[in-house]
Amino acid sequence: MPELAKLVIKAFPEHGNMQLMRLRMAVEFHCSRCDAAKRADLLAVVSGDWQRLLCKACYLELLSEQPE
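Structure (tokenized):
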């Protein structure tokens, strides 16, 4: 989904292999972790791979599991 990369208005700092992105508008995508269809303007990209997207809930859960 490289076309989604064109919608990024803010890229937040990376945490591990994840980076949270704010998009210009809400888009439909599939969360690669919870396997659910989502619609949001905030999502995370795993290892820079736009085929591996995470919803905000999965991103926050994984983030909370990382050591500080």
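The chain has one domain: 2-65. Strands lie at 8-11, 18-30, 37-46, 49-54.
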